[in-house]
Amino acid sequence: MTNKTYRFAAVAAVLLALLVFAAPVSAAEDGATEMVEGHVASLDNGTTTYYTSIKNATNAAQNGDTVTIFSGTHTEDISVNKAITVIGETDVDGNLAVFIKGKVSINAMDATIKNLNVQNSGNAGVINNGANVLIENCKFVGSNGFRYCYATGLVTFKNTIITGDTYGIHFDGSAGGKIVIENCEITGWTSFAGTIEKVTISNSKFLTGNYNVLRFYQNAEVTNTVFPAGMRIDTGNGGVGMEGIEVKFNGCSMEDNSNFEEVFPDSVIEKSDVYVEDVILGRIAQIGTTYYTTIEGALEDATKEATVLLLDNVDGEVIVSKSLTIDGNGKTITGMINLANADERIAVVLKDLTINNPSSYAVKVATEADVTIADSTLTGYNAVYVVNAS
Question: In terms of pLDDT, which residue wins out, 1 or 124?
Fold first, then answer.
């Protein structure tokens, strides 16, 4: 009895082994509900399905779906033409773990690309008529980072490294586009065509490349951003045709601690309104809505009882020969204000001004002048000197 039981068990074991070895290995297939070797991406639309290529996953996706790309290197282009999210897996430390050897093209509204390391011999990224597009926590490297791009709405680059041998980011146009760049590193010529309405750059860094240019054809705001030595920032083609464009920089600096204002060509300062820390470069004074590059020009144009607002500090003697107000706006004149050369009795108001002239007078006044000095600091050999007193 014992021997029969043993022989039966042995036969059963052999049959089981044969069944195990005869069982087929599951092959990867698109739309599978279980992941096996060969699947590279999954699609989540309430039910998770698996795909053997990223293309098949994005083709199957519908608006609102999420395509997850699995860790590894994938040699294929990615095309997004729906309102979907394409996200790459990261490692346990949150580092990029998905490497795309190819190009990412976006032609959609409400599309998101996250956690991808994209490298291509040509353009790494292309945006065609994108709106409400988010590129986040990615790396794009190619002969151009993003080139031949068009935006009809908001396009945001966030926490992303973009490197191009020629272009870092270049938008050719499309009406209504707004570009936001936040906490990014960019290498390569970066510019935005005039049909883009506004560009906002913050907490970012531009790195030295083959072309160190940042060019705007529209109003822009740049804050807390670092630029490399040799950087050129301009509006249009050296400011040509860019009158009235406002470009504002606050908290920006050069990597080598050189003077940030030197990145702007003179032609740009002359033709566009370039603000650095809320001061318009090249603008010394203002009367109403008119700006002047010298205080002499402002005083010459000033009408009786006009207010000349200082926008920057002034060096040298300032001669006033007509009734007006000089609003110092907290600025400093290093030199003398001379009110003694008027041909007629004048009334002058000096306010919110520091006048520093240690080698001579701070203010020189004729008895024929009525002068009011308010909220100001005067330092000189004599603070106020009155001539022709009777």
Answer: 124
